Every structure is written in C-alpha cells, then in structure tokens.
Amino acid sequence: MPIGCIAGFVVPSLMISENDEKDKELGQSKFSRYLLIQNLVASAAGFFLIILAREKPITPPSASASKPIEVLAVKTELKNLFSNKNYIYLCIAFTCLNCICTCMGAIISSVTSPYDYKALDNSIFGAVFIICGVIGSIVISILIDRFHRFKFTFLGLALVSVISLGLA
After folding, report:
1. CB of 127 within 8 A of CB of 10?
2. Same domain, 86 and 45
3. Residue 55 within any structural domain of the chain
4. Where are the alpha helices (DSSP H) in 72-168?
5. In this predicted structure, what is the pLDDT of residue 168?
6. How far is 6 from 121, CA to CA, in rounded Å?
7. Does residue 159 share a domain with residue 81?
8. Is 117 helix (H, G, I), strand (E, B) or coil?
9. pLDDT values of the chain reduced to their tens digit, one per residue, 168 residues
10. Which helix (H) or strand (E) segment is 36 a member of?
11. Rounded Cα gap, residues 159 and 168, in angstroms
12. 160 and 81 in one domain?
C-alpha cells in the first residue's frame, strides 16, 4: 500500500506539469494519457492477481489458520466489541491519526503554494511523508517488541503528531 501511495504522489507530477494550464488541449491530452496509463497498470495488476491467486493457500500460513472456523454471532460480537471502552478509545485514536495523514496528503498543495513550491515539489513532499511513515512504523515496531511499552509509545506518537500538525 505505501508503494501505491508514493506512486500516486509522484507519477502524476511526472506526467502533468503546471505549464499544461496554459495550453488546455495539451493539458487535457496529458491528463487523458495519465488516466489511461493508470487504468492499464491497475488492470494488469488485477489480471495477474486473478490468475495467480488461489482460493486457499496450499499450507496454512499459521497454526491458528489451521484450526476450524468458528461460527460467530455478528450482532452479539459487535455488541461486545462496542461495549468495550478501550476499543472505542483505540478506534478514535487511530481514526484521528489516519485523518491527519490523509488530510496532510490532500492539502499539501494548499499549504505549500504561498511559498512558491511547484507540483513536483509537493509530490516529493508526499512521497517523503509516506516513506518516513513506513520507516517510523518499522522503528516503532522494533522498539515496542523490545520494551513492551504499548500505551506510552502510542500516547507519545499521538502527542508528537498533534504537535507536528500544529507547527505545520
């Protein structure tokens, strides 16, 4: 998924430039070409996935996957899940963090336009944002596995995210 996000930031800026606003026909043809290439890549990936994917793997990927499937009562399970206040807190926290990342990706052009950054610069900012997020996830995962400080780490990350958003 991060590779797709990075490609979504960088590829359009490589194919469409800000000079295309001056010549509408050229800009429209470049945009049409971009959409065609994007759809061809997505169709090719989907086609290979349909051909190569199996209904089930040959061997179970884990010991828990080899156990028989347990039938769940969805209403009861959802009621139990939403009555757990810690689950609700986690949902709110992760939703807020996800919203910060999504919003920064969507408004990066508006934030940087007063400083005369171009579309290519914005795409590089977005790609760096995603790459740093992936690297940060790996580093934090290693630290959590080593020190088992889950709540402290999550609260620290949330605090740093809010502070960095406020400074932006």
Report:
1. yes
2. no
3. yes
4. 74-82, 85-112, 119-147, 150-167
5. 62
6. 13
7. yes
8. coil
9. 667 777 777 777 777 777 777 788 888 888 888 889 888 988 998 898 888 887 777 787 788 777 888 888 889 999 999 999 988 888 887 787 777 777 777 788 888 888 888 888 888 888 888 888 888 888 888 888 888 888 888 888 878 877 877 776
10. helix 24-52
11. 14
12. yes
For 115, the token pair is 């400083």
Tell me: do 44 and 104 sit in the same domain: no
Closest Cα partner for 132 from 13, 9, 2?
2
Residue for token pair 């899940």: 81
- Whether the CB-CB separation of 112 and 125 falls below 8 Å is answered with yes
Query: Residue 54, class by beta-carbon neighbours within 10 Å (0-12 exposed, 13-18 middle, 19+ buried)?
Result: exposed
Phi, psi of 59 (to 5 degrees): -120, 150
User: Does 42 share its domain with 97?
Assistant: no
